[in-house]
Every structure is written in C-alpha cells, then in structure tokens.
Amino acid sequence: MKITLENSKGLNKDFKISVDKTTMTSYMNEKYDEVKKNIVLKGFRPGKVPKEILQKQFGKQIMSEVLDKVLRETSTKALEEKKIKPIGQPKIDLKTYGEDKELEYIISVTEYPKIDLKQIENINFDDYSVKVEAKEVEKRIELIAAHQNKFIDAEDQIKSKEGDLVVFDYKATVEGSEFKGNEGKNTQLVLGKDLFIKGFDKHLIGYKKNDSVNVEANLPENFPEKEYQNKKAVFNCKILAIKHKQDVKIDDEFAKSVGAKDLTNLKEMVSQQVSEELINSLSLITSKQIIKQIEKFKIEELPKNILDEEFKILTQGMKEDEIKKNKKSLEDQAKSRIKTGLIMNEYGEKNQINVTEQEMQNEIQKQLRMMPGQEKMVQEYYQKNPSVLANLRGSLYEEKIIKSIKEKAKGNKKNISKDQAEKIIKDDNKINQDEILAKKSSSKTTKLSEKSKKQPQKKTKLKKVSKK
Fold this sequence. Notes:
The protein is an alpha+beta fold. Helices cover 45% and strands 19% of the residues.
C-alpha cells in the first residue's frame, strides 16, 4: 500500500491510497476460495466450481465485498500511519478498481483539531458547602409531621369542618337515572382539598355522623362514561364517620415511624437531605460556570464540516429570511457548542472517562422510581427509542467529565447558609428565564439552554461518494 498526501489545507487533508494489482488479486482469490466452498451449481461437485464460472455469475458481488473490506482496512491503516485522528465522516473517491487492476482512491478527511487541555487547570468555580441551621431542620420535620395525616374519630354529635376526614357512601343519578360507576362505598375525603369533584367538599361541611345529604355537582370532563361528562349529577350521601386530624407529637416514636432510629437521627437525616438538595442545585450552577469558561478556550481552527452540520441543526425548520437575519448569532452558537463538545470529548478520551452499562441501568432505575406506576411505559419508551438512550448516555458522560474537571480545577471554597443558597439558586433561575425571553424575542426557533450543550462527537463509518 502506498500513501501520498495530495492536498492539505488547515484541518482538511486528501490522501491518495494505492494498492497494487498483486495484493488486490490475492484478496479476490481468497474471496473466491471462500465462496467456492458454499456454492452448489448443477454439473459441479461441491467446492469444485471453476473460478471462471464464479467470476461470470458472482464476480460483481465478490468485487463489491472485497472492495469494501480493502477500503476499510487500508483507510484505517493509512490514517493510523499518518497519525490522523478524523472527525466527522471521511469521504472516499474511487479512481481505479476492478478485476486484475490496482486499487486507487482518494480519502478526504477532516483532522481533529489540536486542543490544549492545560487550560482546564486555570478554570475557577465556586465550591459550595451549605450549613443548615437547627431551626430549618425543625421546620422541615414539622412539615413532615403535618403530612402524616393521622385522624381520630370525632364524637357522634360533632359536625364536620374543613380539614376533617369524612367517610361516606354515595349513590348518584343524572336527571333521575342511574349510570355505570354511580356508586361509592367507604369513600374518604379530607374536606378542603377538593380531590373528588371540584366544589364537592364544601357541601359535606356542617354534618354529623349518620346524616344524609344530597350534593349537586357536575361530573368531570374525563368521566369514563362519555355521555355523562360535564353533566349535573345528584349524589345522595350517607355519612359514616367524621375524623378530626390529630397533631403528631414529634418524638422518638414519630422518628421511628418515618424510618429513623430516633429523633436525633431524624434531625441528622433531614439536615443532610436539605443540604444535599441545595448542593445538587448549586452543583448545576458551578457546572455552568465551568462550561462558560470552556467556551472561551482557544482552538486555532474548528472543523468546517462539523460546524456546517451544527448550523443545519440550529436552523432546522427556520425560514430563509429568519436564517439570514440571525445568521451571525446562529454561527456563533454553532461554534460555541462545537468547541465545547470537542474540548470535553478530548478531555474524556485523555482521562479514559466512559459510561458503563451499570451506570446507565442505575440512571434508568432512578427515573423509574420517580414515576411510580409508569415503570413499564418508561422502560418501553427507552427500548423503542435508541436516540433517547444515546442522549441519556451523553448526559451522564458530560456529568462525569464535569466532575473530573472539578477535581483538577481551582475551587473557591464557600460555606454558605440555607438562605444564601436559595438566593443564589433563585438569582440563577431568573438569569435563565431572562436569557430564554431574550432568545424568544430575537427568534422563535433559536432557543438554547445549558442542557443543549453539544454532546461529544462520535466516530462514524467511511462514506463512499463516487465510483468511476
């Protein structure tokens, strides 16, 4: 194999690859011998079909298979020998090929730009720790206790009031007629929460155990029986019990009921939980600090082919006049995203960062736990949408890279209070909203967020563009 540099302009290089006739004939004969073993033709014993017959019937197919194999092997070897790390899709232009001929082709490749990762060490970010005061912990525990919903039976003559739990049976009719799903037994409502039918709760206030009451209410618009949706129904209700909410005593027993060893342990757990919640939000802010600094790193030249692809993605669905009006802004966005992706991908490769299958499964399981009752639907969604899994892998990859950068960059230690942490988060959210509004006003289709940062580029297969 002979490799000749035909053209070099910045990151773009063209190499002429020549494979002599003898080598090509050897590849072809090897393939003919392989095919001969499996071909059965009338008049010939298995494995004894002459090469001339095979050439006549299968020559084009065999040539195509051999050509693909040789192009793949020689192009890979050529790039390795020339120490070229390609980005994007190399293109192959065939010049000469065929039976008893040498192979000659041009491979056009865009080289991965040189990136100075030493700049990473100069990154500064705020490394927060949050001190949670005892009073904040007590507030959170009181909130937990308030949601325990412990109720005790009221005396028979006590009337129901807002906040009470009412247990009742009902039978409903629409225009005097019964319908499917019109009965309920031992239905429980906490008055004032309005969780049954809008406006229903207030009609059960002021009644005692064993009272009967008729309640008029419109059936919901999503009622299973379509012909009764939004229809006025009369509910004949029999009140079976009234229960008052009992204040929960915050002590060791309460702590044990929510999974702690005792009250002291519960306070420790809550303090840690509040701190972690805030730290997680602050961590996203520091990640953005890092990404914004990476965007300012210098790269002498960005690959035009990848920039063009990114520009097409950004302008997808836009009208020509919109593209023209926002061209400079869109080009800057494309450059920023590509540069960030290249730098982070280079850092990931240099530091052998990757996302394992176990990490992928852990993340999916975490998402399943956040959607109880919909686990099967979420799993099927991932199975049917490989691109969604690829995006998830890309997000985890970026998270691991940012985490690694934080370990090597300069962290400004800041010990702050809960109130200070919440203010920082609130201010950051406001900045994000202002940025979104600004982008909306300039163009409906050029919205960006930190989540849309360019994912690391992936290697792609060779693409044949012509056969002459």
